[in-house]
Design a protein that fits this description.
424 residues, mainly beta, Rieske Iron-sulfur Protein, 6-stranded mixed sheet, 6 helices, globular
Length: 424
């Protein structure tokens, strides 16, 4: 397998690339090894509160873990399983070539999802360094953080946020994080990892029909639910320090997952190297960018845009029109790559980025400049943070409407959005 790159990027030395493949295969298998080693606790095992020693905390802060709201997913339905036989004639026509769905190594749920997540208040968390990335989700008035140091080992968290059943997903091989509503019509789904990949992207399965879903398209592509699409919620990958400072009362996914993992360690060291090929990617990379160039992808009204992260981080603010809509993109330094060094906290700084509709509550169009990691609107002089929240000035307390983004590698975005524009 070779990397399709631009003319200025040399191909990696073969020996180095073979070594990387071995490391990646080990990383995938390491995430699946708990069952054979007897490391995970049974579903009915008693969960002890997290042992937290975070130094002095506010009197109102408790270090006790608390479970998420629980909902009971639907039962296994009496339909054929695409997980066991994707070629069954009982299914609608698949949306992808079945031969392009490839085993990534682990068996189904060998990379174990978190089905009973526990949470800590942000003030009690002591297992994250300031620069570590967390995936932040807001639904209604509730915001939660899902540390990438946990997601990289589990890939799926079945949760309930603000009364909405959701699945939080992260594909390390594409560096893509998405949140899905798992209520589909009168069905309540929950999701597991199939162990398969499509174009190096996570293939999930729902436990009710065992249909196969591609994370990047949030769509079932094989099985009884073929063609069904899940609703998504905007997520932002930001530094722990930024999340903690902006959301001090929010809940954070606990490392008390019921599994023994070396949280904080990256099982895919070196995967962030732009001069290496994606693991088990058998598509054709769009040669406009190297396959593992980090981009921020935005799709609005059929207009797909990929913004090169290095350029975005240098500019800090981009005022754009996408699909006929005004969009402002904020970026700031201070967030480590989860896929660079063996310890996530030492990963290179790739920054954080988020996109918003640039309008105040009264409809006033705002324009922004960056200043010391914050963002100032020219119209009122109000200060805003990476979460699109005004923290000072005449508009203090207002929040910009978030826009869905995909913070991923170019090869993944280019595979699923081949007509994408590239900015700048």
């Amino acid at each position: 397998m070779t990397t399709t790159t631009d003319a200025h990027r040399p191909s990696p030395p073969p020996t180095r690339y073979r070594l990387l493949l071995v490391v990646l295969a080990f990383g995938l298998l390491a995430a699946a090894c708990a069952a054979s080693n007897g490391e995970e606790r049974g579903a009915d095992a008693e969960r002890a509160p997290a042992a937290i020693d975070s130094g002095p905390v506010a009197a109102s802060c408790t270090a006790d873990t608390e479970p998420a709201e629980r909902v009971t997913p639907g039962p296994r339905e009496d339909v054929p399983s695409a997980l066991r036989d994707a070629s069954s004639d009982a299914f609608p026509a698949p949306l992808v070539e079945l031969g392009d769905i490839r085993s990534g190594g682990p068996p189904p749920d060998g990379i174990p999802p978190i089905d009973e997540p526990l949470f800590l208040p942000a003030c009690a968390v002591d297992y994250l360094q300031d620069n570590e990335p967390v995936a932040a989700l807001t639904i209604g008035d509730e915001t939660r953080a899902y540390p990438i140091q946990i997601l990289v080992w589990h890939e799926i968290v079945n949760d309930v946020v603000a009364g909405t059943p959701v699945s939080i997903t992260y594909c390390p091989l594409c560096n893509s994080a998405f949140a899905f509503d798992r209520a589909v019509g009168d069905r309540l789904l929950d999701f597991g990892t199939s162990g398969a990949l499509y174009r190096s992207n996570l293939v999930m399965y729902d436990r009710q029909t065992e249909s196969l879903w591609i994370q990047f398209t949030n769509q079932a592509v094989v099985g009884a639910l073929t063609g069904t699409t899940l609703e998504t919620f905007p997520m932002r990958v930001v530094s722990w320090a930024d999340f903690r400072d902006a959301q001090p009362d929010a809940l954070v996914l606990s490392t008390e997952t019921g599994f023994s993992r070396d949280y904080g360690r990256n099982p895919y060291p070196g995967y962030d190297d732009v001069n290496t090929s994606p693991f088990l990617f058998d598509g054709e990379n769009d040669p406009r960018l190297a396959a593992k160039t980090r981009i921020l992808g935005i799709s609005l009204n059929g207009d797909d845009v990929a913004i090169v992260r290095e350029d975005l981080l240098a500019q800090q603010v981009m005022d754009l029109e996408i699909g006929g809509q005004a969009v402002v993109v904020f970026a700031k330094a201070g967030t480590a790559s989860a896929l660079d060094t063996s310890q996530i906290e030492f990963g290179r700084d790739v920054g954080a980025a988020a996109a918003y509709a640039p309008f105040a509550d009264d409809g006033q169009r705002l324009t922004f400049t960056a200043a010391d990691g914050e963002f100032i609107d020219a119209e009122t002089g109000s200060t805003w943070n990476i979460f699109g929240e005004s923290t000072a000035g005449p508009l203090e307390g207002q929040t910009l409407d978030g826009i869905d983004v995909d913070d991923s590698f170019w090869f993944a975005w280019g595979t699923f959005k081949p007509e994408s524009r590239i900015l700048p």
